[in-house]
Amino acid sequence: MDTAGARILIVDDDPTSRRLLDVRLRALGCDTTLAADGHDALASVQEEAPALMLLDLQMPRMGGLEVLRSLRRDAFDFPVIVITAHGSIEAAVEAMKEGAYDFLPKPFDTQHLGIVVRKALERGRLVESNRLLRDVLEAHASEILGDSRAIREAIAVAQKAAAANSTVLLLGESGTGKEVFAQAIHRWSGRREKPLIIVNCVALSEHLLESELFGHEKGAFTGAHQTKKGKFELAQGGTIFLDEIGDMPSGLQAKLLRVLQDRNFERVGGTKPIRVDMRVVAATNRDLDEATREGRFREDLFYRLNVVRITLPPLRDRKEDLPALVRHLVARYARETKKVVRGVTEDAMSHLQAHDWPGNVRELANVVERAVVLCSGDHVGTEDLALPSHIRLAVPPLASPEGNGDFHAQVKAHKRAIIRTALDRAAGNQTKAADLLGLQRTYLVKLLRELEIRDRHAATE
Asked: In CATH, what number is assigned to the domain containing residue 107?
């Protein structure tokens, strides 16, 4: 097990013992920090976030057992090796009960020290890997289905990009599979054995997103009771996927630019630079070119992100992929619901082909899941489908191209008309209106805000 660069905290009140451990661990390539007592040790833990601690049990002011209890109370999970004097095995056993990983008797044997440290570091890495295992498994389970020309071209570019370390920008409407592509790029890359970290840039407030990305030091803000690693640190050696990057607050855009340029950052409330090696994949359903021209997105950050650009086609532009997608989704949901559903009828497939799929693959997955749940036979029929296309919304026609306003203004006006009509039909209920439009409710709320649409009804959610 490689020890190079491992951050180890040595806690011992004996200067000679501290120095001896420091020399031997540095010879193994470790990055060491020294503390003379328990109070200094806990302060160093908050600042350094070590990968391993070597802890003497017999110390003044605050002994090793007290340090172990404090670490366990604050939920620190890095391994601790306790140092015991000759003949104090009982104390070592007590320390193991308090959460110590192993113990080292004095005087130290150099070979034994190396073995114990390597095993402890391996245990710490396994704990961190297990924490990220779900994301990795999901990444390996994801598939890109379809054989249309548009999707094949997108796959070809993604595979070439995966072989390099360049930043990838995924563009496309909501539900087109940007996260699936990000997972595939990670899976196809040389970083596949390292973590894939997924961050939704619109799900958190600016303050929380900053802490989520960069981590924070203890006391950096109210509620920061201990040092926390951010997503950039957790993505070390792997890939970080920044979803909805077009919605990132402007204040954080500058900090992200520095990470992309210099590959280092500081935690919130910290001053020590942290270097990171990671691949960045970003995605958005926004028009970043327009946002950049209008000053809503930093131009320098846009150019840093826009190295390899992949635009994913909407489902309505690759209808030939529908049969393969439907077969896959039916099999998946039949397996999950433990039902014998083998496919869809020809009539049901015709209805699926006739729909425009404004919610793209995500909407298709929702429709198929519901159909499988409701299906009483071995094939999904038309009666099992609940397509928004069955409900016609009367909307005003588009203005004549020679008439008022430019293209973008007319599109926005038409969007407003469609959404207002759906809200009227749903009596102001946003959830029902979203169903009528084939959208997720959260996306409809975002459109209401973007288009400055005020609901004329009292919402009845």
From this structure: 3.40.50.2300
